[in-house]
Amino acid sequence: MGRTKTNSGGGGTSQSPSTSDSSTSTAVAETRIKDLLKELYGLIHQIQDERAQGEHNLTNISKTHERMQQEQKITPYYKNKLKGLYKTAMQDAELEAELLRKALDKITEVKSIRETRRLDSDRPKPIMRRGVLMSMLQQNAQTLPLWVSKPGEKPPPLCGAMPADNNYVAKPGDKVAARVKSDDEENWILAEVVSFSQSSNKYDVDDIDADEGKERHTLSKRRIVPLPIWKANPETDPDALFTKDTLVLALYPQTTCFYRALIHDPPRKPQDDYSVLFEDTSYPDGYSPPLLVAQRYVICCKEDKKK
């Protein structure tokens, strides 16, 4: 006899506990996402209103400077007026920045909930076509949150070139660079964390580009490098970026493998990529022409620079 329960009214078969729990969990997640999106919608409107107010105040500052130039003198009236206008402008900018941080937090939480649902799903991992996979990697790089520092605040670990703390453990679903053996040689590949064992100090990771579904590797912690979880802003946190001629590991365009490269030019604006020179013996000087690689896929290389 099976253990399936039937409804007392003689209706259809009820769901198993695991199915019911899964449905409840999905419903809770969907409700939370809807709430977060509503909050995000409200924040976006607040940001737009605050920006409009800020632009109005900046226009007043510009007009005041024009009047001063026309009169060719700085009176106590203009000094006090400008002081008040600049103070208000600073307050407007700080409020807008705080609203933007809150909006980014909401977006991060939505992405986290969706990633958790994907990992908890019993459905097998789909095999992506090469073009779809490359588009997904590019999108992940473009949507990586930009770290917005407050005055005097230092960027955190895993912001741009900032390394992870020694005791940091990547979470399931996180993307990492993994050093794996294949055909008697070692390569750095892009992988996804499945789990971490505290007792063995080893990760289980899946090759993100396995041809036949999941290709799992069990690797020690020293063979794993977490990828950045924030982009560094070159305009406010240039120290959180790799500098010119730094040796790094970078994801070669249109592949899922990391190779040694030199920084040719770091990003100059928040949306910019690194320009890197990959080691390549087919070129006379041993390096490829400059290629663009997103911050998301440029990590520290502890090996010595090529002689």
Element layout with pairings:
Blueprint: H1 17-71, H2 76-120, H3 130-142, E1 175-182, E2 185-197, E3 202-207, E4 216-220, E5 224-226, E6 247-251, E7 257-265, E8 274-278, E9 291-293, E10 298-300
Antiparallel strand pairs: 1-2, 1-5, 2-3, 2-7, 3-4, 6-7, 6-10, 7-8, 8-9
Helix pairs in contact: 1-2
Structural commentary:
The chain is of the alpha+beta class and 307 residues long. The chain has helices at 17-71, 76-120, 130-142; strands at 175-182, 185-197, 202-207, 216-220, 224-226, 247-251, 257-265, 274-278, 291-293, 298-300. Strands 1, 2, 3, 4, 5, 6, 7, 8, 9 and 10 form a ten-stranded antiparallel sheet that branches. Strand 6 (247-251) and strand 7 form a beta hairpin. Helix 1 packs antiparallel against helix 2. The longest helix is centred in the N-terminal third of the chain and has 55 residues, at 17-71. The radius of gyration is 26 Å and the shape is globular. The N and C termini lie far apart (73 Å).
